[in-house]
Amino acid sequence: MTLRVSRRIMFAAPFLVAPGAITELAAAAEGGFYALLAGVRREAIGRGIRASTVDLAFRNAQFLPHVIELDRKQPERTMTFTQYIAKVVTPQRKEDARNELAENRALLDDIWRRYGVEPSIVVALWGLESDFGRLPGNIPTISALATLTYDGRRGAYFRDELMAALRILDRGDIGEMTGSWAGAMGGPQFMPSSYLEYAVDYDGDGRRDIWKSRGDVLASIANYIRGLGWRGGHSWGQDVLLPDGFNPGFAGLGARRPTGEWSRLGVRSVDAGPLSGRESEASLVMPEGANGPALLVYANFRAIMKWNPSTYFAVSVGYLSDSIGRG
Fold it and tell me: Model-level pTM?
């Protein structure tokens, strides 16, 4: 399976870009940016993408200095785990998630039967990625990806994503793509390569429309997380209590132990009772270090981490999903 790198954390940098530097970037791009597009055009046509598709896609493509600015000042790296959870798993989002599940119950139940992914996890991913489709992004995808390709910090990655975006256009799934500053698109916020591999034409209209088709959006989310290893009927994880003097060196996704061994080490459920659940193996994560919260996480947590390799994000998906189930 191709490695997926999160658009949220892969570009994080410890510095900001001054307005003057952004202006200089824009000026410097005038010639080089369009030379880059010419090279991509030749490569795309060589890969079998129609010249007419590329020419139409590049007709209004432009260097976007603001994309570079956003690339270099990402807020997730500046928040603690507690701050992040408070910001993204809000009472309003929990209520919205329960409402969306109720409104789309028949659709989600059919997707559950087809893909083996519970409605609560589909809705949670949808809610955290695009606020249930309300915030899919409005930046032209071709321009964003071309800008990041030209910037060069992860040029090869973004060039591949730009080529994937051109292939989507060539297939006719969508006429004009918009999304986040990093090229993530639609309700699921798929990168173009993820779209090509996992997007679903649930409504049967011949197009995989993750922008406007509710069925395509939700089925695509289920298909993706299943492809990443989600196991229906299993938990993602649970908050736990640690005994005094617990060795924090036992924490980390690289350390997997049988659940019974965690019990012997003194790990307990948050009600101070014995660990529960059907999972045979778990890892301990401590997002804020030895003095913060602790969670035992299972195989489904690892599936969410493949979607977005951020512990904060993965736990927030689990928390939101659990809140729906409790609702």
Answer: 0.87
